[in-house]
Structures are given as structure tokens and as C-alpha cells.
Fold:
Amino acid sequence: MKKVFILCLTAVLAIAVQAQNEKYVNFMKKNIAALDSAKSPEDLQVSANNFERIANTEKDAWLPNYYAAYAYIMKAYFVKEMKDIDPLCDKADVLLANAESLSQNNSEIATLKAMCLTARMRADGSRGMTMGPKATMILQQALQQQPTGNPRALMQMAQMKFYTPPAFGGGKDAGIELLKKSIAAYDSFKPASELDPTWGKPYAVNLLAQWTAQ
Amino acid sequence: MQTVILTLISIFSTLGLLAQQTTLTGTITDLKKRPIAGVSVSIADSYDGASTDSIGRFAFSTTDTGKHTLLVSMLGYKSWEQPVELRGGSQSFSIQLKESPNELTAVVITAGAFEAGDTKKATVLKPLDIVTTASANADVAAAMKTLPGTQQIGESAELFVRGGEGYETRQFIDGTTVANPFFGQAPNIASRGRFSPFLFKGTVFSTGGYSALYGQALSSALILESIDLPERSEASASFSPLFVGAQYQHLAKDSLHSWGASAGYTNVGLYFKAVKQQPDYFKAPEVLNGDANFRIKTSRTGMLKFYGSYAKNILGLRNPDIDMPVLKNAFELNNSNIYTNISYKERIANRLKLQTGFSYSQNKDNIHQQVQDADNKPVQHTLPDWVAAKNFRLATNSKLMQLRAVVDYKLSGLSAVKAGAEYWYSKDENQYQQFPVAALQDHFTAAFAEADVYISNGLAARAGVRAEHSSLLQKTNVAPRASLAYKLANAAQLSADYGVFYQKPQSHYLMWHPRQNQLRADHYIVTYQKIGFNKVFRAQVFHKEYKQLTKTFPDTSSTGTGYARGAELFWRDKSTFKNFDYWFTYSYLDTKRAYLNYPYEMQPTFAATHTANLIVKRFFTKMKTQLNINYQFAAGRPYYQFKYNNGAQQWDVLDQGKTIAYNNLSFSANYLANMGKAFGVVVLSVTNVLNSKQVFGYNYNADGSNKVAVVPPANRFIFLGLFLSWGTDRTQDAINNNL
Structure:
């Protein structure tokens, strides 16, 4: 009798845990899809809010923090008022620090950190001299952290190269070469889980078409 | 079996109960009832929630029941929360969010100061501006001379601010004061600052009304904050006909600590051979210097930093004797300087930060002056007493040790309270000819407290007080400080500052009369500023009252008085002209003082009524070159000939006038390029391109028959240098290996 009872109880608990996990996965999937199709700063804010909510509930998961930060950084690229950029990036940096405390040496997190710096440079061109090399350094770390090649880090690096004058080791050709490497890395990229980041390929392909047409 | 079924039923019915839905709806506005879009509304620790739409509405349902917390948050607003009881049905909310004061939108209390930094909003300069200002040649203080409130004093490296003398501006590194920020200098010939601008990540230049955290600066404070851990390991070297230098900086793999060292040697001899100098240099200025540092990140919030430097500089020059022009005065200076600074900061509790600092410096000057004949030989025959007095040896040895601790407690929002204490120990020993003069020792203590209160995003106040006691002067002084800042529309703000500032008289006046009062200046400043993203406009008016200045006649006493008042403008614009960045400053100054042997209140010789600067910078990407041009103008400064009137027993002004106006057009070009494996910068700079005549004042002989202009050693200064750096993390290799 007792055994049956315990068995039933474990079954119910297992179902509950499973349900919670399924709820997390479904919620994440839904919101990742929404984030991928976000078209305005408003959409991105909604995404950020949704992911932050999950992050506040699932305190051991780095991905909700990661995606919330990604939404804020994208918003920082979208906004028109330069003065709005820094607060968004400050927020993203806090979320990235959370994510990093839950998942160390993570190439995807490092990539976002570099993206965040690049967004800040947009706010003030004179920051390029100090933040540019820092962003490059973080991207190098990102590439070291994922020896098979992180396509998002490569795409970031490609953009940095493209906009760096040839005299400083950049230029159009160097940028295109890296972007091609990034697209190749996208093709062979296998995310660690179904929720891990996969974004960026359509953008990279589009960018390559633009750059080669120039 | 029945019980099992019953248990299962009860469990499932509980789950069923959970499925009961509560719908939450509402609107969110700001305090002015304007809707806010994108606000996050959620049940704490649950997935359930929503974001407001463009008219501030939200609606969502939750299956949670019982007592929960409703959380509302949005970037730029104070978070709002309220307990809710979820029991099905629907609930409606109308919520107003308060704007959260944040550094980016809030009014700035320290609007009176000029800040050079990367991150904060209130910055008008970037760290690189200090290096790329044409007239400055990478000297921090010289770069500050392009800001309003400063005088163009070509004969000194010091900063003369708003009618104040050079020593009235103090430099602070990580909170502690720097006793000798400049290399030893010959009379009326400017030297340079000891510290490279690359040591600092933040620079605050306050031309008055600054915080109670700083003291012993009557007019102005130049507050420097040293960098934390470097970005990466790096080796660098510099070459110029004037100097060579090498530096290495190592960042540990774990990025938790770093160390570095540098050494340099400067010899201006070669340059002086090529470019004729007015004085006859028998020893061209020569500097040997080295420094070392380490920085340790002691925890996530803790940082320990050490910096130490040693420098030795010598120079010797001859000028015609003013009284007997057939003779010459040969002046020789031997200076050595040690400076060390240790600072530690840590967050010791949630809202509580601690900052401590220790610094020690020792400065030794050996000065020898000799009257020489036409063949540069010591004069053998007997000289009149007043000429013979020009033969002297003076050795000074000054030590300063300082300890400081400040705690910073964060109140809500941006409001904070700071309090701290300092102890300074100083000892000055002089030897004149072969006679030691009694040593001057002071145990100086100070305590201070300051509160920053943000009443709202648009109104903030600061109140502070500083108490100081000097064992040497046997005096205690209390200095109140206060500021009020009010935000106007369109990123503009108005602020007012008041403060009482004390500074000990210079040590050579204390030698025989130690029981003087501290010099005192009362500052009143009103500032209007408007900071746009690429444009900054600032206008200031000020009034300064000087009291207790040192008088040397009829006795050494603290009875001097004076005032300074004026208006200043600053305008910087990075966006109107494409690729051009320029700033313009203008300062009007009306100042008089009765001090030293001035018989009445007179405009001091270091004060020009009008000063203006125009700085233009442009980076040519294709040429990889930044060009900088600046033009500095100052109206003529007064000069006086004083003569003691034996009959009336007073000092008379026998002659006076104003120098010609000061004009200085400077130019510099920085060419950046990868050179082999190094990143290189070539710097060419030329001051006074137009070769304008510059006169800083006049010296008189005893009877006034000989009047000699004080001029720079050479009208123009040309500098050419190459700076190379190698990042030892092999940046490019790392990328290539990874691809």
C-alpha cells in the first residue's frame, strides 16, 4: 500500500517537474521566435521583458539572461536618440554579467559583450579608439572559447574589419573574407541545445550580398 | 486502495484549482499622466506577465492563486511593486511610475567642473583630448590651459585659475594630494608635469566651488583618477631627439592583477644646439625617470593599486646680471623626486563603499647661483653686498606623507553621503649657504562630510563641511560648501555653488612666522550649461573673495585681501562641421589683491583681463592623421616696479605698465599606422607657429634704469616623436590561428 502511494507521489512530482521544464522550453521557444521576428524597438522591449521575467523565475538558466541582453542590445542599435544607447547597454551588461555567472567561458556571451561595446561606439565615435580594441579582444576570447568557430563572433569580427581602414589591418576584402568564414560556420553550426542561440545567418547572407555588390 | 484514489483525487483537484484564472489589467503612466509603453508587468517568480502597449495598457491572466507580488519595471523609472491576492476573476490597476534619477538624465551637481572621461555624461573632454591638444604636448596641466578660467602663463607650468596664483591649484591622484606635480624649473621658465596622461582614466578640473572631500587648494583642484587593470599586456617605446623611453605592462592571464614599469631619459641638449635659446644653457635640461606599478583586483568590487616613481632632473643656465650687465648669473638646479601612492577601494556592505589612500613624496632641490664674469668664471673682486647676495646655495628637502579614508553610503536613487578623514605629515628642511634653517614640521588633520541629495531628477543639492587643524599654525578652520542644481528644459541646467576654501601659506613664508592664519577664499559661482550629444555650452559667472593672504610688509602677516570676479564661456561642437571637432573658450577676469609687498589692491602680474582659446581637431581617415590647431590669446598682463621708500617707510610703485598681448598659434599632427608588428604614432607639434613675440613681464634693476623683458627661452618649440606599442597577446596571430 505504502509502496503504491510513494510510487504515485513520485509519478505526480515527476509530471510536475516535467511540466515545468516543458513550460520553460515552450515559453523560451515561443519568445525566441518572437525575438527573431522583432521589427521595432517596441517589439524588442516586449521580448526583453518576457525574457527577463523568465530569468527572474529560472534563476539557474543563463539563456533567458542572454536573450534579454540580446534584445536590449538590438534595441540600442535601433534607437534614434544617441543618448538612449548607454542606458540600454548598461542594462544589457548587467544581464550579461548574470548570464556569465551562470555559464563561464561562454563564447556566445562574450560575443554579445563585444556587440554591446560596438553599440556604445555608435553613440560616440571618439570611443572607438578605446572601445574598438577592447571589443576586438573580447571577440578573440569568444573565438578561443569555441574552437569550432562561433559564426556570430565571426560575423561581428567581419563587421569590425569591414569598417576599419586598411591601414589598421581592416578593409573591405578582409571583412568579406571573414564574413564568408562566418557563413560557413553557420552552415556547420550545431547548437548545444534547442534553445541555444542560432540567430544571425539570414543577416550575414544579406550583408555579404550588400558588401560584394559595393 | 481507496485511500490512494482519494489522495490522487485530492492532488489532481489541487492542480485543477491552480488552473483557476485571474485576469490582471490596467494602465501605466508617468507622473504627468502620460502613458508609458514597453513597461514590464509581472507576477514575481512566475512566467506570467505582459508589457504595456503604446497607450500604456496591459492585460494578462495567471493561473496562480493566493498572495503574490505584482512587479512593474521599466528602464529609466523607479520599479513599483504591490502585494496582490489572486483568487479568480479580474483585477484592474492604474499605476503611476516615477522617473528614476539616473546619471544620464539627472541634473549634475558638479556642473562647475570640467571632466575628461569615457563614460559619464557630464564630460566635456575625452581622455584623448588631453593628448591631442596642440599646445599641450601631452601635458595634463597644459591641456587644462585651453579651458576657461585659466591664464596663459608662459613662464610657469602651474595652473593660474581665476585670479589665483599657481600654488592655489592642487593636483590629486586617487584622492591624495601631489606635492610637486611638476619637474623642477628655473625662474620664469616653464617645466612640465611629472605624470603621463596615460596613467589616468579620469580627469576632473574644477575651477572653483569643489567638493569638501578636497582641501588645501584655494582656487582650483585637478583631480586625477588612475587607471585600473590595463586592457592587455603591452610593451611600448618612445623615441624623439629629446628623449627615449620604454615601458612594459603585464596583465595576468586571469585578468585579476597586473604590474608594469617604465624608464625614460630626456636630454634637451641636442635640440638646444639646433634651436637657439635666449639664456645660455651650460647644462641643458636633463631628466632621468622611472616608475613602477601594480594593481590587484582583490574581489569583484575591490581594487588595490600601487604607483611609485623616481625622477632626477638637472639644468643650468646663464643670464646677464640685471644690475651689472657685464656680469652674468649662472643658475644651476639639481632636483630629485620620489612619489608613491597606494590606494584601496572596496564595497564593504551593500550600499557602503570604502576608499583609502596613502601617499608619500620627497622632493629635493639643490640650487646654486653664482655671479660670473664675461668668461663665465666666478667673479674674484669684491662686489657690492646686494650683488654678492646673488651668490648663494640653497638646498631644500621636503617630505609629505598623507593618509586618507572615505566612506560612501548610497541612499536611494543617486543620493549619497560621504564622510572621511585625512592626516598629512609634512617636513621642510632648508639649508641656505652653509646654515641649516630650522625645519618646518606640520601634523595636519582634516575631517569632512558631504551629502548629495537628489530631491528629484531635476533638483539636487549638495551640502558639505570640512574641518582642518594644523599643528604648525595652531589653527583650526571650518569650511562649509554647498551646491544647488536645477534642471531646465532641453538638457539645460542651472546651478549655484558656494564654498569656503583654505590653504596654508607657502612654506617659505612660514619659516620665520609659523603662527599665521590659513589663506582663505570664498567662492560664489553660478553656472548655466546645456549638454547635447555632440554640443556643449557652458556659461559661468563667479565672485571670489580673498582674505588672510600673506603680506610681507610691514611684517609677515595674514592681513592681505583681494577679490576676483568674472564671466566665462565654453562652447564645444562636434557635429556642425562634418569631421571637425572644435571648442572655443573665453574668460573675462577682474581681479585685484593687496598681498606680499603690494602697497594697495592691485591687479596681480599673473592676471590678464581677457583670455580666449580656439581648439580645432580633425581626423583624416585616409591619411590616418589627426590634425590639431589651437589659438590662444590673452590680453596684456600688468607689471610693476616696486621700490622701498626709506623716508616714508613704504613700498612705492615707481613704474608700471601692461605687457603686449599674448598670441600663440600651435599646430600638431598625429599620424597613426601599423609599423611592422607595432602600432605606431608619429607626433609633430609646433607651438607659436607665427613666431609672435611673447612677453610675460619685466624685471628691473635696483634703480629702475635697466628694464628687462621676461621672455620664453625660444619663441617656438618644435617636437617630433615616435611612439610604438606592441600588444604582447599577439592579436593578429590569435585571430589567424583561429580561422
